[in-house]
Amino acid sequence: MSDKFPDLIDPVLFAERRSAVSGELKIATLERLSDSVIDHDGSVNVRIEFGKEGKRIVVAGHIEGVVEVQCQSCLQALTWPLDIDFKLAVVASLQEEKQLNDCEPLLLDGDTLSLNALVEDEILLALPDYPRHEHNCLAHNHSEDADYSATDSQTKANNPFSVLAKLKKTGD
Ligand SMILES: [Zn+2]
């Protein structure tokens, strides 16, 4: 396993050799992704396998990691886990694209394939357009007063059933 993740590769050669590459890819090296995330210090773990299905070159892989995006409600950081499986088939034309069943089309620009761009595209596809915290983060920020927890413990103490439960236990 190589530590340095290669960028530009020859997909035909890699497919014929059934090569696999894996390693860490720094978010800072992915320019377009850097625009979409807040934290640029992190990295993602990537594994990509090359093979052939008939004459077709197939590129399948997995991307794992965590990025920080900006919540569109409260504008605070929002941790977004990445767990992406992808399977792409190299196509030369739009017509070929229609014949694909379980693969997404991958159009090559020349003879080389940029793995960085491929990984970046997959991550950008997986990120939401308008990321938001799952909880109502705006409401949460405004209702953080002490009264809330005080009433909560009071109702617990005044609950007659909790007293009954205690009596029952000691009575046995
Ligand atoms: Zn939020």
TrEMBL record:
Which Pfam families does its entry note? YceD
Described purpose of this protein according to its UniProt entry:
Plays a role in synthesis, processing and/or stability of 23S rRNA.
* The protein's name in its UniProt record: Large ribosomal RNA subunit accumulation protein YceD
Is the keyword Nucleotide-binding assigned to this protein?
Answer: no
Which family is this sequence assigned to?
Belongs to the DUF177 domain family.
Which keywords are on file for this protein? Answer: Ribosome biogenesis
